[in-house]
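Obj.: predict assembly geometry.
Materials: sequence records (below).
Method: joint structure prediction, all chains together.
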Amino acid sequence: MTSHTVYRTFETEERREFIRLGDDVQAAVDEAGIREGLALVSAMHITAGVWINDDEPGILEDTLEWLDKLAPPSWREPANDVAAALGPDPGDFRHHRGGEDNGDAHWKNLLVNHQAIVPVTEGRLDLGPWQQIFYCEFDGGREKRLVIKVIGE
Amino acid sequence: MTSHTVYRTFETEERREFIRLGDDVQAAVDEAGIREGLALVSAMHITAGVWINDDEPGILEDTLEWLDKLAPPSWREPANDVAAALGPDPGDFRHHRGGEDNGDAHWKNLLVNHQAIVPVTEGRLDLGPWQQIFYCEFDGGREKRLVIKVIGE
Amino acid sequence: MTSHTVYRTFETEERREFIRLGDDVQAAVDEAGIREGLALVSAMHITAGVWINDDEPGILEDTLEWLDKLAPPSWREPANDVAAALGPDPGDFRHHRGGEDNGDAHWKNLLVNHQAIVPVTEGRLDLGPWQQIFYCEFDGGREKRLVIKVIGE
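Observations (raw structure tokens):
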């Protein structure tokens, strides 16, 4: 059995952003030199996801809007000057009492999962024609890491 | 390390349908001849899921209804003749502007995950007594593929 | 390739409860004696989850409340004496017609997933600084099992 580990660091400009990972994962498989095995792609943070879905801008935008319905964002604008003076609205999140404002990003991470595992067959990622791997940033603007772990032979 | 890869093709009659996979996955493990390892079961499409849950008709029907609440379907009947004349209702899905009507199936795929990984111990799938593996079709009526990848020794 | 299998049994006092698993999974890796590989952590029940998220009491409490919104609980108190005499309210769950009352726990299992896979690098779980592995009980008060399967070398 051979293994190979690659780390990627992202610092997105937007708070939420999708980054294609297919080429990086294939490169990790090539570097490992394996023909048959598994490639695990896993965010090392609790406010980012990894998913395999369509590389179509419409569905990506739809999905972000939908995730905001299921797991509502929390960086609300203060409703007026008094509210602004009181500081950030902690909303319903107990998690925000310590000053955090990313509770929704935790929930999005749980909903879409923070990892995917890709079969490797004859040296290639064994994906369907419309399957693209994405890193899904839900609380960006700072350095965040991802690990790709390839095992096989 | 040994590996073994099996592909399954499904063409369901219904748009949404559940197919038991336990026997297929065990067969793949038997063919691989491994005693200890992992079996990855992964849909090769972005509009189908794989889950491990109860093989009880009531909960399967409940769950489909519930998924339609969290990820509403998009093949709505036109409300009247004028709407029918305008063609399929694109609803809120940007994804449907290109003629697709399966946005909800993408979301169901993300919610329930498109893959599961089953431990193999002493040559058997190491599942609890009520755990059954299902392929969950959310946009059927055409040929769709699934990969089972077994690694171990 | 080496493999090692560990079972854990939980019988929580509360119906819903979170249990930290990081130390158990690291112990399984140590016992396996591997340096590089994967550790699968998988609930053997269809009414429990395994997730990797923040070990912060506020977000755990928030998340349980949020999951109850997405997947509403079903152990409703009877509204009055007549209802009580009729027995447990089966609600909308077809699954409850046979006497079960844990339909929501099945859904929570599907939403948050029943398993996670942790990369192992240089003998350690390769997680980010805020990632903790949790067993998430959604229907406790009885013996339930979990399997940790380590493979690598």
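Conclusions so far: Helices of chain A lie at 22-32, 57-70, 81-85, 103-112.
To do: check interface contacts against the pulldown list.
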